[in-house]
Each structure stands twice: as structure tokens, then as C-alpha cells.
Amino acid sequence: MKSVTRSLRILEAVAHHQPVTVGELTKLFGLPKSTVQRTLVSLNEAGWLRANRQDTTRWEIGARVLAVRPAALQGSSLFAAAREPMIRLRDALNETIHLSVPDALQCMVVVDRVDCAHAVRTYYAIGDTSPLHATATGRAILAHLPPADVDELVAQRLERYRDATTVDPAELRAELKRVRTDGYALNRNQYRPDVCAIAAPVLDEDGTPLASVAVSMPDSRYDADRLPEWGRLVADTAGGISDRRSGA
Fold first, then answer.
1. Were 138 and a residue from 132, 156, 187, 220 both cysteine, which residue would form a disulfide, CB within 3.0 to 4.6 Å?
2. Which one is predicted more confidently, 145 or 77?
3. What is the pTM of this model?
4. DSSP string over 107-155
5. Is residue 162 within 8 Å of residue 135, measured between CB atoms?
């Protein structure tokens, strides 16, 4: 139990001081550097922590923490602002609505969901993760990040999940430009087979993307003629969440 308690204390310390180095944690706890390093590696392997993208000697919270955040989020301004608009969007479209947040450039994490009444519907569990470049939720975020962040992402090998997945950097940048112009992103069978989604970003006061709200549906119910209508509804919902969160 001592090792479990130590791991939790180090996890909490990283959350409060991130990005933080091994040396800083060693001084904070008065533990041997090797002990702290082993604990960090174990938490990293489990997905609770990850190395900072800009400085790999520093540690920060990983996607696993986001996966267990929904209960805590219920008291947050984002969760509180998003819930009612998500329900209204679900009622308007009778399709499943998701709220996802980015874990830096690593992935998107589902933190809330409002289900539709259809017997056949798309399903993402709370805590599920997905890639930014291959999903509507991710591209809604990418479209509002600084160009340097997009450059960093495309410098990596973009994985192809389906034949329709955009992996060419020029094509991805063109798609992000369309997202900024239209106000929403579309994913049609680019990540999961027979799954379509339309997403828009929830922005902070300074335009930083905090989350994406999305409507998702089976491909059999997707209607290209209704995309402008659906896109406007999703974008309006995301904008309303942004306003509610900021108190506007």
C-alpha cells in the first residue's frame, strides 16, 4: 500500500506542478531519484502520465486521467455549460451527441455523451480516445490551434485507419481551412467504419479550443443534403456552450 500511496501522491504533485522534472519531484518528496523515476515510468506505462511534448525531461498528466474526469467535470464550467445544449441538440436531431476534450496532440477523449432514441446508433464510451487527424472532433480542434502545432502533428506519420482517412499533410491543412470557414468538421467513415460525425469547437475567450461537441450517426442515416443544416446546428451549439462557459 505504501507504493500505491506514493504513486498517488506523485500523480497529484504532477497535476499541480506540471510540467515537472524528476529532480523537482525528488526535492518535493525527499525520495531517491530512482524511486521517483520508477514511479513516473510506471504511471506513464499505465497512461496516467506522459512526457511533455516540448521538453521530454518534464512530466504532465496523460489521457488516462482525462478518461476518469467526467465525475469531476460535473462541477466544472465546461461540463455545466455543455450539458443542456447537448440535450437540446440531441432532441433536435435524435442522434447521439458527444463532448470531447484534447489531450494535447495525442488524442481526443470523450468526457460526456447524450444518447439518442434509435435502436441502431453510434457508441463511444466515456473515456474513449481517438486521433485528431482522423476525426471530426479532432479536426475541429486542430483548425483552431497555432500553425506550429499542426506542423508538429503532420511531421509525425499520420496513421491511415480507413481508405477515407486524410493522411496527406497538404490535404489535411486544406481540410482545416474548410473547417475554419464552415465552422464545423465532417468525418465520414474516416476512423470507424460506417460512422459519420459533425463537430464544432468550444472556444475559450481568446479563441483557444477547449473541447469539441459532435453529433454522430451511422452512415446509413447520413444525408449529405442536410450537412449545412446539421453543421449550423452543431456550430451554434458549440458557440452557445462557449458563451455559457464565459458567462456571456
1. 132
2. 145
3. 0.74
4. EEEEEEEE--S-SS-----TT-EE-STTSHHHHHHHTTS-HHHHHHHHH
5. no
